[in-house]
Write a structure and sequence with these properties.
alpha+beta, D-amino Acid Aminotransferase, Chain A, domain 1, D-amino Acid Aminotransferase, Chain A, domain 2, ten-stranded mixed β-sheet, 16 strands, globular, binds N-(5'-phosphopyridoxyl)-D-alanine
Amino acid sequence: MIIYLNGEFVPETQARVSVFDRGFLFGDGVYEVIPVFGGRPLRLAEHLERLTRSLAEVRIDNPHDRSGWESLFTTLLEKNPGGDRSLYVQVTRGVARRDHAFPTGVRPTVFAMVNPIVPQNPAVLEQGVAAVVVDDHRWSRCDIKAITLLPNVLARQEALDAGATEAILIRQGLATEGAASNLFVVGDGVIVTPPKDRSLLPGITRDLVVELAQEAGLPLMESTIPEQSLRVAEEIWLTSSTREILPVTRLDGRPVGAGVPGPVWCRVHGLYQDYKARLRETA
Ligand code: PDD
């Protein structure tokens, strides 16, 4: 694999970061994950806007303008040919002696890599996945895509340990999102997803799903989701760049709705696949 690191494209074995990097010492940085289908990044402008916003919120200078990011990604994709992939890009505050205060005169560390997107197992799409409900132990700025992901890591592992695929996080009685995904529920035929605020990441897949559902005339509401609504939901979905729209068919060991991916999921999953197919055609 060829890695981008601070202006250079190098084999992964040669990509080295200092132990004084603030990403390593403090988790002081932000990141993005951008899916690429048929060589075309999905919603690149939106991903770059979110990266710009994350950087501004944590007061790290954006090392590139939009065209700089685009040419970096294009070169990295050319150097790592393959099928469907995701771009991972991380910017940390840089390398400095350990001190909580911002260092002066350092340049951000910029790292990017390409990973394959593993096609969804057909069994998952037929049967759905299991999820568990766990307490949200994260900070109060979950809208920033920070690399500091320890609570997310712990929540996800709690799900795996319980034989499930993902954790749904509960904060003050409300279901906010998954450990690495956004949340949708269907109740009385209406699709509901929590409004974008500081308690969750403004997912690019989430926004695309909202847009596709609305264009198709499906009833959709942005509204908070009390934990109890999960228990009586007809359908639950989790969305992310790498896992698209996952139907959750078991919650804490009990079936969700009929215990199989529901009709509204089938419809929206189809719309998403059509969107991807159109993206590939523009390549
Ligand atoms: N995570 N919420 C959280 C906490 C996430 O980490 C993610 C994605 C999402 C979905 O956002 P998007 O649709 O823009 O991918 C929501 C990425 C994939 C990750 O950390 O690998």
